[in-house]
Amino acid sequence: MADYIYLLENRLSHAQQKAVGALRTIARESDATIFLTGGAVRDLTAGASVRDLDLTIQGDLSKIRKGLGAAGFEIVGENAPAHQLFLTYSGGVRLELSSAVAVSWPKPGKPKYEPGSLIDDLRGRDFTANAMAISLNEGSYGLLMDPLNGVADIENRELRLVSNYGFIEEPSRLIRAARLMSRLGWQLEEKTRQRYETAKEEGYISALSAWNKGYELEEIFHEEDPVRVLRALETEGWMQHLFPALQSAKVNTTSLSDLYTRQGELQIQGVLGHIAAIAFPLVTGKMSSGDVASLKKLVARQGFVREIEALDARVKDFAAKLSAKEAATPSAAWKLLHATEPDLVLATYFSSKSAPVQARLKTFLTESPNARQRIPYQLLTEMRITPDLPGYNELLDKLFFELMDGRLATPEEMKAFLEPYSPPAPPPPPNLRRARARKEPKGRGKKKAAELDIDGSDFEGMPLTVAAEEELAGLETGLTEEGDLTGPDRGPEPTEEEPIEKVAPLPTKAAKDKKAAKVVAEKKSPAAAPAKTAPAAKPVVAAKPAAPAKKAVPPAKAPAPVKAAIPAKKVAAKPVAPAKKAPAKVVAKTVAAKPVKKVAAKPVKKAAPVKKAPAKPVKKVVAAKPVKAVAKKVVAVKKAPAKVVKKAVPVKAVKKAAPAKKVVAKPAKKAPAKKSRR
């Protein structure tokens, strides 16, 4: 349904849509229902151009007939027994309006018509491709009715008889089949082809009625290519039954070819003229005047004959209008040509010999259309003239005509012309984003903010950090809020590491210190068994620069190691002066205070290395060495002094120091395992 609504709105010409709309209004006012039927539905479905419109109503045709004249329709023919009217509408639209009937054939070629439903009407037609209807009524607009599956035959490009006796009942269908095959390029369905050949052999064409003969003769001239259809009918032998004097050999093919060319040029500019009345004298160009007169008498719709005879006079009148001063400008000629009947424009372009007329027609076809390409769509957008504004299309037409006449040659002139149509600039959009309150730091973050001066008063003139720059960029784009990247929860800003100054190692004592440290570590390994990380060899390697601290060994003879621990601070601080990252406070807390107290209370028992030292000479007294090693390691390992200090302290002392417990347990575990395996 939606597909056919689209086809009705896009595949019909503007004039055809107006004609359909007018008939819908008349049918609604007459309490009748109206449908698009026949060849129009076939052409819409097949994708071909719609040549003429066939419409069927369910209701009283006489009521509708009364309103046709007032709506702009002209009746050019009538088939009273079949309840058919043949109409024309402004714009060159041809229509067939009929009432729904149920038809029967008591004798071949003599139908009997009775009022019926739409389905009855469709079942009485010639071929299934023509037995379809589209509703044009409110509530069912665009609904397709196809009781005989004509869509399938259209897809197969086949003509199938509705009735098995179709060629017997109505012999004109033989001629219609040949004409449609020539125009559409379709084939007859297999059984239909057999019946077609049988009808030719049996001579069913002899029952052709006079009215149908005149109708089929006229349809030849309404074809897009009359000569091709004429030759097809001659091949099938049907012209002998229609009008033997009408032959393809008597056609003025040169003039007819010129007519086709001019018709195509006008169609490009939207002038869709029919060639029927113009082509009639060309197709019958070599026939005698008597044969032409006889042919005109046979035509079923005499309105077509009147159109042929009045064509020359109409061309002269229109040529005079086109060459007058009123149509001197290209825009005036354009408007006149589009307001005139397309058939008359085509006839004038083909047959007029006036030089001014031909010159203006050439301008209309070649120069005037180029003005549309010069429409400044970019300037229209800059001036806020968009398609959603009312009257946009009318403004484009005005601009098109001004450009056509050469009145707008520069961009300044175009801008001045468009200025009155430019709407005012819209007000800036209100800022609906509400500023959020500044997040105040809490707890430790508040103290840290006070120390670092979060407001930035102490850092004026200093470069912004990376986090601060990213937060400022995010605030501008609305992706972040204040404090998301520089708030207290984000942690401190990373600082650059200062390079460590290298200290020249001493020549011989360093090796001895390594051995002494290894011995001490081996002796400590039974007590440090629970720990699992950080090998003991690494602290010893880092302690190389602190070798001068060994001078404190002789005074270590005293039983208390406290005195030896105090000078260790001074000895360690002097050689490693550049290492400022390891604060002195941390060293004092871990080395000086806690280990001294515990050793003073229990001098030998708690310090596992000291227990083994008194049994041996002074060389093996290690009590002072752990303290010295602590001083060395604390100073050497600049980034994590606490880890190194706690390796030198006995295990029990580390357990009481809660903050350093986890750090000490990890480095002490791998040392005994590796060294014990060695």
From TrEMBL:
Question: Which source organism?
Answer: Terriglobus roseus
What family does this belong to? Belongs to the tRNA nucleotidyltransferase/poly(A) polymerase family.
Q: Give residue spans, biased composition: Basic and acidic residues.
A: 438-451, 510-525
| Stretches with biased composition (Pro residues) | 421-431
Residue spans with biased composition (Low complexity)? 526-538
Q: This chain belongs to which protein, by name?
A: Poly A polymerase head domain-containing protein
Any one of the GO BP annotations: tRNA processing
- Which superkingdom does the taxonomy of this entry point to? Bacteria
Q: Which residues form a coiled coil?
A: none
Cofactors named for this entry: Mg(2+)
**UniProt GO molecular function:** metal ion binding; nucleotide binding; nucleotidyltransferase activity; tRNA binding
Entries under Gene3D superfamilies matching the protein: Beta Polymerase, domain 2, cca-adding enzyme, domain 2
Residues covered by the Poly A polymerase head domain: 34-160
Q: Mind telling me which PANTHER family this protein's record contains?
A: A-ADDING TRNA NUCLEOTIDYLTRANSFERASE, POLYA POLYMERASE
Span list, region Disordered: 418-456, 476-538, 598-618, 656-678
Classification lineage? Bacteria, Pseudomonadati, Acidobacteriota, Terriglobia, Terriglobales
In Pfam terms, one family for this protein is PolyA_pol
Query: Which keywords accompany this UniProt record?
Result: Magnesium, Metal-binding, Nucleotide-binding, Nucleotidyltransferase, RNA-binding, Transferase, tRNA processing, tRNA-binding
